[in-house]
Design brief:
monooxygenase; FAD-dep_Monooxygenase_BioMet; about 30% strand; eight-stranded mixed beta sheet; about 400 residues; single chain; about 35% helix; alpha/beta; oxidoreductase; FAD/NAD(P)-binding domain; disordered N terminus
């Protein structure tokens, strides 16, 4: 059992989880650590995430560490010393956010950046090494039902063969296009008129000024770029967000490098040189949807993007799913399932909505026009690195309570 794992206080439940992304895998580990038996179903047959990094702020990294994953994270992740904020066209430094030792000292856990595939590998290895977890691949969740004995989850294989899992509860962690979310909240996704272009490049090919152990954030009118080292510091992850119409697309939609370069033709020299390097970009058209109301009912709980997609202006999509997993596991301690899931929904709904709202606000700040940008830049410059970090104490300082009612 991982360090700091609670000792189960009653016989474990049978739990079915739809989706083996970051949230589903973390939930499986957190639930198994409390003595529950977990079946984890994933529609994909291969686990790969190309051209995608993610950020693990202290509110997420401490949960993964408590699950026993600290040594693996330290080997695969990078710990940036700061976020350096610059004007996209001018290249002028606007401000900084202190990370590195300052983040660990203030919040008791590191701020890490990691390739999504590396984190998924760490989680998968842990799941496969846990006797209480069964992993089924090539199965899509198609239906949920409550029964007299508990709940059932219907799965369909790529060949069309259906099977039904019996469980005490079902967790829908099946992503932003969740099939099961409609059982609780049928509001549709709403395109927001922007897209995130993602790529990675070898670190030693990047302009020398952008090879440091830091996160770069470049702000421009209607656009921004983020980059940071991943893969043990060997590569740089690039995310460029720009206006783009269309419906939401999958991670693997290809983008034309010439289109990306044209959108950032006015970028400052080091950034322009960096954006010219990738030969392949993957495009994700951004979509938004309010957190499900409720996030759980009866014997069904939503988790991660299935419950509350978060726009990428606060770097909290993965972190929020990891938080969900920890609170869900704590909620089930000593309660009957419906009451436990009601406590989970009560604990998570307000925080999810707050983070969604702050991410939308950050997007407006990042992409501000000339006059608003001047005011933004003045505030960031005046605050300084430590006070910029402190503005997010409410976010990074969050810790899972032993009981979800106090979360």
């Amino acid at each position: 059992m991982p360090p700091n794992s609670p000792v189960p206080d009653r016989p474990g439940l049978r739990i079915a989880i739809a989706g083996a992304g970051i949230g589903g895998l973390t939930a499986a580990l957190a639930l198994a650590a409390r003595g529950h038996t977990v079946t984890l179903a994933e529609r994909r047959t291969a686990f790969s995430e190309v051209g995608a990094g993610l950020q693990l702020s202290p509110n997420a990294s401490r949960i993964l560490t408590d699950l026993g994953l600290g040594p693996s994270l330290r080997r695969a992740a990078t710990e940036p010393s700061r976020v350096r904020i610059r004007g996209l066209a001018s290249g002028r430094q606007i401000g900084e956010v202190a990370l590195g030792p300052a983040m660990r000292e203030r919040f008791g856990a590191p701020y890490l950046v990691i390739h999504r595939a590396d984190l998924q590998t760490i989680l998968l290895d842990a799941v496969r090494g846990r006797p209480g977890i069964r992993l089924l691949v090539g199965r899509s969740a198609t239906a949920f039902a409550e029964t007299q004995a508990g709940a059932s989850l219907t799965l369909e294989s790529e060949s069309g063969r259906a099977e039904t899992l019996a469980a005490d509860l079902v967790v829908a962690a099946d992503g932003i296009r969740s099939t099961l979310r409609a059982c609780l909240d049928g509001r549709p996704l709403r395109p927001v008129g922007a897209a995130a272009w993602r790529a990675t490049v070898p670190r030693d090919c990047a302009p020398p000024a952008l090879r440091g152990d830091e996160t770069g954030l470049w702000l421009g009118h209607g656009r921004h770029v983020v980059h940071y080292p991943i893969a043990g510091g060997e590569r740089i992850n690039l995310v460029a967000v720009l206006p783009q119409a269309g419906e939401d697309a999958d991670w693997s939609a290809p983008g034309d490098p010439a289109q990306l370069r044209a959108a950032f033709a006015d970028a400052a020299a080091p950034l322009a040189d960096l954006l010219r390097l990738p030969e392949q970009w993957l495009v994700w058209t951004l979509a938004d949807r309010r957190a499900a109301a409720p996030m759980a009912r009866g014997r069904l709980a939503l988790l991660g993007d299935a419950a509350h997609p978060v726009l990428p202006y606060l770097a909290q999509g993965a972190a929020l799913a990891i938080e969900d997993a920890a609170v869900l596991a704590a909620s089930l301690s000593g309660r009957q399932v419906p009451a436990a899931l009601a406590a989970y929904a009560t604990a998570r709904g307000p925080r999810a909505r707050t983070i969604q709202s702050q991410a939308r606000r950050n997007g407006r700040i990042y992409h501000a026009g000339r006059l608003a940008a001047a005011a933004r830049d003045a505030v960031m410059s005046r605050l300084g690195p430590a006070r910029m970090t402190e503005r997010y104490a409410w976010l990074y300082g969050w810790r899972p309570a032993s009981d979800a009612a106090g979360a």
